[in-house]
Amino acid sequence: MSEKLQKVLARSGLGSRRHMEQAIIDGRVSVNGVVASLGDRVAVGDELRLDGRLVHFSVESELRRRVIAYYKPEGEICSRSDPEGRPTVFDNLPRIKDERWVMVGRLDINSTGLLLFTNDGEFANRLMHPSSGIEREYAVRVMGTLTPEVQRTLCDGVELDDGPARFESVSELGGEGFNRWWQVVVKEGRNREVRRLFESQNLKVSRLLRTRYGTQKLPRELRTGRWVELDKPDIDALLGAVELRPRRGGTGLFGIAKRRVDKLRDNPLPPRPVDAGRQRRSREAAAEGRPARIQRHDGNARPAQQGGGAGADQQRKGGFLRQQRRDGRNKDPQSGE
């Protein structure tokens, strides 16, 4: 079975279908060594390259569409890697063979809450595109007084540096004194949009937590730094919101994976702390102008640490295992390790 070239590239997470069409027009894509043209198709066994780099792909009918919900903690950045060696949201995600997780939207380093990841690039792009009108809901702690007049102004719309923006709704959640919690909804994912809307009214956001993306709420059993894979009903609800059909390859959880998620609901894992030592090392490395030592959760480090001998290696290993026990990783039903 063959598929349109731009569809395969978009699903691989390399960009939207429109951007991939432009890449084909620009002559950046080749199939089996021949520069591709718009309208070409690709099948299993073909060699597909973008800008000379090999693209690993599978046809749609063979793939099971997967989505995971991740509770992002404060201090992680929304990037696959960071030159400063800071922790990223991808550090704790499970590995998937011959595929990769595509992030749906972003949260800044000081924000927390729901992040969705999928192995379907087209699905991710539709969820993020403003034309889909997907709602993002946030719980926000605001320093200052949010009067009814200010609420109306924020819902009517204000002019930001990158154009007009507005809240779909604003409602009070509670709190006392100078810091109160509010629930706000937007339909775009522009950089720091929620914070900038409040700043336009001389109000400062001290905490920001995403509680919902489209039809998917932040699971109650999820703790910071942890993830859970969504089942078919939740995925189908998101698909319906962006008018995508379910795949023949299947959607959702089966067998052992489904039992693991059911067990997680009954026995939530404890929060996974952000690696404060790694943050400190990255700042020190940046100050000294050297590459940061990146600590992985499998205990490997890059670049390799010099010296120390076998005794030091044993000491590091023991410390790592103790940390695994403290954060519950050694009994993580989803880690696959």
UniProtKB/TrEMBL annotation:
It comes from the Bacteria. Keywords: Isomerase, RNA-binding, rRNA processing. Residues 264-337 are annotated as: Disordered. Residues 3-72 form the RNA-binding S4 domain. One of its GO terms (cellular component) is cytosol. PANTHER family: PSEUDOURIDINE SYNTHASE FAMILY PROTEIN-RELATED, RIBOSOMAL LARGE SUBUNIT PSEUDOURIDINE SYNTHASE B. This is Pseudouridine synthase.
